[in-house]
């Protein structure tokens, strides 16, 4: 329910600065429209300037009710944009202003602001406490707008865990406020969202009918704050997943769009895409938390510097300095604790690896420890690998545009991910020494060459872009971006293959616990793979002589196997045509074949290409584990992977025994 906060705050803001607002004369309307436009734009400088202008106007006219409501929009804006330190400071200033002017009847606005603050920080219980305090302090007869906002806000925080009570709060809204279609449509939209979460189809249909009627019959009075969310709920009720996903695409906030897609995928039963959406959700939340912490630290540090320079001033400022210093100390302590935790965690990881070496020499149980170690590294690298893959995919799209001011942050993410992979490269390679076949120093050098070369290039290119601070000419920047994307993909996929080969290169059996249609699975693999080689003008034709209703029992590792084969045929294809096909065999099993147009593999190299770390050409700098990994995965799942030696137009790999 956290995703509703941004939508609900927009509804509340409309009651303060938007259509149907409390402002009557032309000057006020013009200032309110300017404030709303700046708020929607997200430009901090423009918003704060417009906000101060409006505050000054209301203060000159001593319109204290409007004055404090306008001040509340500043808190709402800062919460929406995750400027929590600024929001908290504004709440204190507002409260002090109310008391200094002896306008204690407006203290309910301070409580509302605190409710917004804690709701924005995903603390709904605290938000509920302050919204209820605000309700007790507001005069319901004189302040229907404030009562409306209080109940609407209280409904939002209750909807986190108590949607039935949230709906009851909406029933308590002042009826006269709902006579305005702006407020009515906004509340109806929110009712639809809560009814959808409750699974109450009759209630949803009833609210949606009124909501849709305002939308079509009175567009000028329609509040579109929750439109995309409501339409997704509507089409989910109809089980029209295609339209629901289409409405997700129109949502401008990535976190909200992704959570909506996650709900859709779960209802569809598309667990694979639901899993990816959940991973993306975690990644976005981690990025949000990191950005909030970074901004918080910068603002606290800035405040401390200002207060230090003004130590000779009033006692109040010294108290503020002590307060901010304490907050900074707590955060520094937390950061130190995190660093200590990571240090000891790395020591523990190293100790586990040393134990792995000793156990492998003495007993077969060491193999299990080695697998646990590699799995730990794989978990640690999953996030940076995903970061590089995501950036590689979007950078390969020439239509994707990245603002110059965004480049530093995005490329810092790439550099951080690359350094994470680089820091764990040697432990991954060393883990091979404890496997069944081990790894020689020459093979280790081959792996380091294949991984470090693109890593160094990737880090160097990204740091050049960061240092240039958006000053690189567009054509040159696009070439560098293409190089970053290419190397990011190469590093991510090579690291993933190396980890998988370390885990499954011993050909140990894996359970086949996943049942799916053969054609459906291959189409899914093909559809998800096409992003990987968009820079190459290749086409992959899918052919099958297997009926769509045929299902197989397999393991999700089959997708990794097919990706390895696709990488190989795409890399060495001379022609533009590649083929992926499914076949029914005479013995009752099925097979999948992948082929390209190019030079056929010589007889002496037919088996050699499946040997780990082998390069057929001295000029080649590949890792050399793609095909060995594919064969190991095939053996682990009880399949066979061979080269069709009768195929002479290029290379043709066949996975049989499905």
What labels describe this entry?
658 residues; mainly alpha; Serine Threonine Protein Phosphatase 5, Tetratricopeptide repeat; Four Helix Bundle (Hemerythrin (Met), subunit A); 4 domains; 5-stranded mixed β-sheet; two-stranded antiparallel sheet; 24 helices; 7 strands
Describe, in plain words, how this protein is organized in 3D.
It is a single chain. The chain has 658 residues and is mainly alpha-helical. The protein folds into 4 domains: 4-179, Serine Threonine Protein Phosphatase 5, Tetratricopeptide repeat (Alpha Horseshoe); 250-359, no CATH class; 363-506, Four Helix Bundle (Hemerythrin (Met), subunit A); 514-656, Heat Shock Protein 90 (2-Layer Sandwich). 68% of the residues lie in helices and 6% in strands. The protein is built from 24 helices and 7 strands. A 5-stranded mixed beta sheet has the order 2-4-5-7-6. The protein has a two-stranded antiparallel ribbon with strand order 1-3. Helix 6 packs antiparallel against helix 7 (124-137).
Protein topology:
Layout: H1 4-17, H2 26-41, H3 44-60, H4 64-80, H5 84-100, H6 107-120, H7 124-137, H8 144-158, H9 163-171, H10 181-198, H11 201-217, H12 227-237, H13 241-249, H14 254-268, H15 271-309, H16 315-362, H17 365-395, H18 404-423, H19 425-432, H20 441-468, H21 474-504, E1 514-517, H22 518-529, E2 539-544, E3 551-554, H23 557-572, E4 577-584, E5 590-595, H24 626-636, E6 640-643, E7 652-656
Parallel strand pairs: 2-4
Antiparallel strand pairs: 1-3, 4-5, 5-7, 6-7
Helix pairs in contact: 1-2, 1-4, 1-8, 1-10, 2-3, 3-4, 4-5, 4-6, 5-6, 6-7, 6-8, 7-8, 8-9, 9-10, 10-11, 10-12, 12-13, 13-14, 14-15, 15-16, 16-17, 17-18, 17-21, 18-20, 19-20, 19-21, 20-21, 21-24, 22-23, 23-24
């Amino acid at each position: 329910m956290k995703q509703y906060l941004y939508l609900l705050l927009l509804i509340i803001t409309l009651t303060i600065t938007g259509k149907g607002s409390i402002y009557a004369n032309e000057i006020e309307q013009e200032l309110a429209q300017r404030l709303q436009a700046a708020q929607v734009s997200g430009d901090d400088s423009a918003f704060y300037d417009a906000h101060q202008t409006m505050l000054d106007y209301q203060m000159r006219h001593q319109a204290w009710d409007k004055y404090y409501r306008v001040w509340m929009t500043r808190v709402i804006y800062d919460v929406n944009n995750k400027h929590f330190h600024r929001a908290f400071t504004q709440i204190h200033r507002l409260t002090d202003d109310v008391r200094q002017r002896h306008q204690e009847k407006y203290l309910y606005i301070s409580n509302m602001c605190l409710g917004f603050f804690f709701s924005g920080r995903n603390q709904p219980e605290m938000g509920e406490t302050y919204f209820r305090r605000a309700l007790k302090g507001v005069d319901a007869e004189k302040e229907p707008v404030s009562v409306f906002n209080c109940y609407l806000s209280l409904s939002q925080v209750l909807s986190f865990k108590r949607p039935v009570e949230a709906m009851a709060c909406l029933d308590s809204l002042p009826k006269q406020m709902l006579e305005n279609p702006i407020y009515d449509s906004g509340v109806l939209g929110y009712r639809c969202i809560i009814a959808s979460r409750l699974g109450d189809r009759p209630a949803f249909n009833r609210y949606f009918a009124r909501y849709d009627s305002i939308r079509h019959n009175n567009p000028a009075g329609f509040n579109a704050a929750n439109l995309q969310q409501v339409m997704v709920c509507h089409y989910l009720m109809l089980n029209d997943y295609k339209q629901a996903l289409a409405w997700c695409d129109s949502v401008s906030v990535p976190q909200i769009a992704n959570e909506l897609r996650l709900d859709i995928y779960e209802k569809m039963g598309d667990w694979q895409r639901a899993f990816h959406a959940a991973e993306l959700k975690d990644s976005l939340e981690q990025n949000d938390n990191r950005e909030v912490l970074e901004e918080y630290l910068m603002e606290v540090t800035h405040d401390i510097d200002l207060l230090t320079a003004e130590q000779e001033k009033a006692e109040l400022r010294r108290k503020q300095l002590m307060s901010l210093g304490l907050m900074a100390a707590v955060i520094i302590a937390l950061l130190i604790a995190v660093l200590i935790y990571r240090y000891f965690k790395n020591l523990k990881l190293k100790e586990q690896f040393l134990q792995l070496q000793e156990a492998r020499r003495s007993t077969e149980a060491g193999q299990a420890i080695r697998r646990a170690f590699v799995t730990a590294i794989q978990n640690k690298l999953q996030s940076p690998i995903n970061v590089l893959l995501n950036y590689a995919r979007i950078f390969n799209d020439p239509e994707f545009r990245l603002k110059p001011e965004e480049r530093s942050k995005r490329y810092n993410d790439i550099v951080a991910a690359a350094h994470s992979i680089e820091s764990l490269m040697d432990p991954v390679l060393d883990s091979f020494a404890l496997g069944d076949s081990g790894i020689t120093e020459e093979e280790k050098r081959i792996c380091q060459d294949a991984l470090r070369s693109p890593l160094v290039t990737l880090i160097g290119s990204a740091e050049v872009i960061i240092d240039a601070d958006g000053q690189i000419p567009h054509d040159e920047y696009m070439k560098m971006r293409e190089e970053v994307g290419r190397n990011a993909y190469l590093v991510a996929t090579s690291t993933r293959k190396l980890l998988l080969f370390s885990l499954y290169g011993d050909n140990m059996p894996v359970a086949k616990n996943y049942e799916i249609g053969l054609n459906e699975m291959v189409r899914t693999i093909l559809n998800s793979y096409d992003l990987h080689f968009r820079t190459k003008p290749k086409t992959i034709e899918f052919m099958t002589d297997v009926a769509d209703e045929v299902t197989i029992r397999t393991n999700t590792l089959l997708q990794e196997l097919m990706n390895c084969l696709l990488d190989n045929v795409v890399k060495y294809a001379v022609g533009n045509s590649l083929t992926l096909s499914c076949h029914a065999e005479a013995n009752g099993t099925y097979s999948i074949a992948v082929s390209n147009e190019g030079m056929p593999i010589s007889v002496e190299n037919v088996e050699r290409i499946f040997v780990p770390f082998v390069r057929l050409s001295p000029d080649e700098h590949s890792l050399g584990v793609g095909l060995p990994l594919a064969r190991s995965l095939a053996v682990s799942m009880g399949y066979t992977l061979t080269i069709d030696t009768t195929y002479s137009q290029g290379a043709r790999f066949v996975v049989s025994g499905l």
